[in-house]
């Protein structure tokens, strides 16, 4: 679905140039939920902007279904962190969700139907006639997600989408995203700086180095598909995976597999076990 090859992005030129992204290559398969985790300021948003066609990469290429991305593709949607600035306050919730569909020349009746379906999917069936400012922050971010889903994008990009909501709402939105992604078989690339969130949400986690961003690991998250905010986060496998991501982020790259295996052994050993 998505192929990023040899991507470099540099802001400015000459001595004052700042390299934000360096030699990034990876692909995302259709139906996959891939998370990108990296330290603050490492270049995550720059990478997403290049993928979304909002800025041209200095070098390298981004391909979506084999077509080179040179501007914002029609079948791509982006959800940003700042929901309060991404919704139009003068439009109702339903009209906000319908808005991008106007540009796709979709008729009025189908626009209304798709908006209603998307609002149903995010648990906001009854709020279409309200205005964004009448909703809580978490509800506004659900509206942003509904708007992205209504356009049925081939690829949904999410830039720290849950960073501005409280912890409980964040858990609810994470579960909502996994449910909707599985129901609709959407392809999602989500950027976060939260290690636990990346492991909880992802089928895969791409770990980025500090600035300039380059990939230090591409981990398959082999947790069961049905995840639970308490049981999954308490499981030995989750704890081992998040430990591995944390070590990679700190640049402590142990021998492949050993860190995870050791962490897991420690956690699964019964209290009476004597270490060898
Ligand atoms: N328009 C710009 N012009 C010059 N430098 C920029 C520009 N945008 C970003 N940068 C720089 O590029 C680097 C990467 O920024 P970017 O926003 O991509 O990082 P990030 O990982 O998304 O950060 P955060 O996690 O804090 O949101 C930073 O050092 C930033 O200062």
From TrEMBL:
Molecular function GO terms recorded: ATP binding
A family per Pfam: ABC_tran
SMART domains xref list: AAA
InterPro entries hit by this protein: AAA+_ATPase (IPR003593), ABC_transporter-like_ATP-bd (IPR003439), ABC_transporter-like_CS (IPR017871), ABC_transporter_ATP-bind (IPR050166), P-loop_NTPase (IPR027417)
Keyword Ribosomal protein attributed: no
UniProt cross-references to Gene3D superfamilies, sorted A to Z: P-loop containing nucleotide triphosphate hydrolases
Keyword Transferase: no
Keywords in alphabetical order: ATP-binding, Nucleotide-binding, Transport
Annotated region described as Disordered, given as residue ranges: 250-276
ABC transporter domain mapped to chain residues: 2-235
Organism domain of life: Bacteria
PANTHER family xref list: ALIPHATIC SULFONATES IMPORT ATP-BINDING PROTEIN SSUB (PTHR42788:SF13), TAURINE IMPORT ATP-BINDING PROTEIN-RELATED (PTHR42788)
Name of the protein described by the UniProt record: ABC transporter ATP-binding protein
Organism: Prauserella oleivorans
Native organism taxonomy: Bacteria, Bacillati, Actinomycetota, Actinomycetes, Pseudonocardiales
């Amino acid at each position: 679905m998505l192929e990023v090859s040899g991507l470099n992005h540099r802001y400015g030129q000459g001595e004052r140039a700042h390299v934000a992204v360096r030699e990034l290559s990876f692909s995302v398969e259709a139906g996959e939920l891939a998370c990108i985790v990296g330290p603050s300021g490492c270049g995550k948003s720059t990478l997403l902007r290049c993928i979304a066609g909002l800025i041209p990469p200095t070098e390298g290429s981004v391909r979506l279904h084999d077509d080179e991305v040179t501007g914002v593709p029609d079948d791509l949607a982006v959800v940003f962190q700042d929901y309060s600035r991404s919704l139009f306050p003068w439009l109702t919730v339903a009209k906000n969700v319908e808005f991008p569909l106007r540009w796709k020349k979709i008729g009025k009746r189908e626009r209304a139907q798709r908006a209603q379906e998307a609002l149903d999917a995010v648990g906001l069936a009854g709020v279409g006639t309200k205005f964004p400012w009448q909703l809580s922050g978490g509800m506004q971010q659900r509206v942003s997600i509904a708007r992205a889903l209504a356009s049925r994008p081939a690829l949904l990009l999410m830039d720290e989408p849950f960073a501005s909501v409280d912890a409980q709402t964040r858990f609810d939105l994470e579960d909502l995203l996994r449910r909707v992604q599985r129901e609709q078989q959407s392809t999602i690339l989500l950027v976060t700086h939260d290690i636990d969130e990346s492991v909880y949400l992802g089928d895969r986690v791409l770990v980025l180095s500090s600035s300039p961003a380059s990939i230090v690991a591409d981990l398959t998250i082999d947790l069961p598909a049905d995840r639970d905010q308490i049981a999954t986060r308490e499981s030995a496998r989750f704890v081992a995976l998040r430990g591995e991501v944390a070590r990679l982020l700190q640049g402590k790259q142990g021998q492949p597999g050993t860190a995870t295996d050791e962490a897991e052994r420690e956690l699964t050993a019964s209290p009476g076990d004597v270490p060898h």
